[in-house]
Amino acid sequence: MCPWAYSAGVRTSNTGCCVLPSRKAGTSSRVAMDRDGMGEASVSQTSRCVPQVPPDLPPSAGAGRYVGDPLPGPGRNCARRACFDLDRRPPMRHRRHGWHGWLLVLLLVLLVPGTRAAEPGVFDPAWHPPMRLPSLAADVLARVEAQAADLDPLNSLLVAHRGTVVLEAYYRGMTPHTQVNIKSASKSILSALVGIALAEGYLDSLRQPIAPFFPEYFEQEDIDPRKRTITLEDLLTMRSGLETTSFQHYGAWVSSRDWVRDALDRPVVEAPGGRMIYSTGTSHLVSVILTKATGMSTLAFARTRLMDPLGIDLRRWDRDPQGYYFGGNNMALSPRELLRIGELYRRGGWYEGRRIIPEAWIRASTTPRTRSRYSGNRYGYFWWIRRFGGYESWFAWGYGGQYVFVLPALDLVVVCTASLNDRPRGVNHNRRIYDLLERGLLAAVTPAVEAERRWAERAGRGR
User: Fold this and answer.
1) What is the rounded CA–CA span in Å between residue 326 and residue 186?
2) Can you tell me the distance from the alpha carbon of 392 to that of 307, in angstroms, rounded to the nearest whole number?
3) Closest Cα to residue 382, out of 310, 263, 247, 280?
4) How far is Cα 311 from Cα 398, in angstroms, rounded to an integer?
5) Each residue of 114-154: pLDDT tens digit?
6) Could you give the 3-state DSSP secondary structure of residue 44?
7) Right CATH number for 135-450 from 3.40.710.10, 3.40.50.1820, 3.40.630.30, 1.10.10.10?
8) Residue 397's pLDDT is what?
């Protein structure tokens, strides 16, 4: 049987070759599959679409299937089928599905109680079957897992394709349910909360100035007037223009008695809306704005609107001296919980038939708005954007190696976490994670995903 037949509904011949619908009508491609199922051994074109009938069957046994009909499902004997020229389809009365058959299906859909179309974006395993990786890809995944084991302080690596976990590994005492400090990956979750608050009407617009949320500060007359022009969007894109509270200033900022005032008191070093200045003080202001706009703590809002619907138990999250939850840092989640966040974004904001985040917000927050001068990565609304192996990826990134990668074109979500203790010196851990993703993981998974996608596209063109 063709190695791809189960996952992509590929027709096979008795010779062990896959019979492909060709782009040119009246021809077919026969791809001899090697043992690894990668389909690179040989390709030959025939001048016409030749029925692939086993020699032990009479000539008439090959009739009954046409190029463009729905591909057979798992377990069916595809070898006992023939393919015919698209331009030589028989009259409607000889096809397997006449108009009366489709009318019956329509009546059943309309009349049977409880029958309804799936909501857009809902994960449908019937339409997206779990990927069946060929043996070569499975071997490479095993090597990737072994490589990850050597990346001290990495302690977890999870890979999901269309919601199915194809790799899950833990190291150095880590477990699937151990909650870890995800550091600045918290900012991407804060972004989701902003999108939900906008959809529910708690926030008017991204372009609304932040000054009305901090009247006790902006009622002063001697402040820089440029601060009054800072908008919510400026905060989400790290373009407030305020001096950073991160890096060399981080210790002094978190040691201050009032984190909000300290962040707002920072001098304006760039025009608001201009160059990116990464600052956790900026994201903390967003958490305070959410609290004031919704009338509940950021933790309570996160639990009721995001975490509880996803089945995530958000327990630990630090607060500032005034009691505001730490916007953009020190949230504790487990690797599997991070995977649910990534899957939610990959699925366009849907989870188990329920809309959690507006899809328009996901598109907006993962659209590049600026770029980091240091890493070169692009930045949206608290989400990083970078290309790996030629594929666009959105990712949440926390200090020390806490990552959630979403590669929408490949239907992949990758999660990794790392220990914040006993870290090796002089090692660029972020670069090693990028290399593991691009040169190791994508090299293993991309051929399988792309091959499956090509089969699906060819099958779709024939329907």
Assistant:
1) 9
2) 26
3) 280
4) 22
5) 333 333 333 333 334 444 455 446 777 788 888 899 888 89
6) strand
7) 3.40.710.10
8) 97
